[in-house]
Description:
Elements: E1 3-8, H1 13-32, H2 34-63, H3 70-90, H4 92-120, H5 125-147, H6 149-185, E2 189-194
Antiparallel strand pairs: 1-2
Amino acid sequence: MPGMQAVMTTRSWTSSLFAGAVAILLGVLLILEPALTIRLLLYSLGIVAVVVAILFFAGVAFFSRGGGPLVPLLLVIGVLVLALGVLAFLKPDLVGGFLAVIAAAFLIVGGLGVAFTGVFQRSGFAARALSLLGGALLTILGLLFLFHTGFTATVVVRLVGVFFLGAGVVFLVGSVLQWWRERRHGPLYIDAELVER
């Protein structure tokens, strides 16, 4: 039997409000407690590594029936990933230092590559200068990571915290504007007719 029923509209501003609140909380945590945040990230990496290792071991169990060269490879990768996960819990400073060296190597190689490309690319002076400057900054950041890991990681985490804080404020302002727009222009309820078949 058809009837009239009031259906509430979706409030799009609530997701922006939630995202803004989470980003601000995360930004404040990153700014005020960078060492704790780094340790929590290392513990999270350990949890992810253990889960991935379990998946590799499940793959070994699945493929072991048919044999083949894939089984030893999956087993070795699973053991290495599990070792990384366990080390992230037992020796987080060791894993953090190892990851800092890897990040430093990527930053140095990437920065030198960007700078080299900036010198030899065929574009305007401004684009070449920006590429050269960006490459130099990445290389310097990589060298800082390599030789002053603790200080650089703290600075980078705090900069990421400032970014999250700014993004959270933008989300909150956007959610307030969306709420105000929906309140002024949109109906809170829509009359809909439900038809049963």
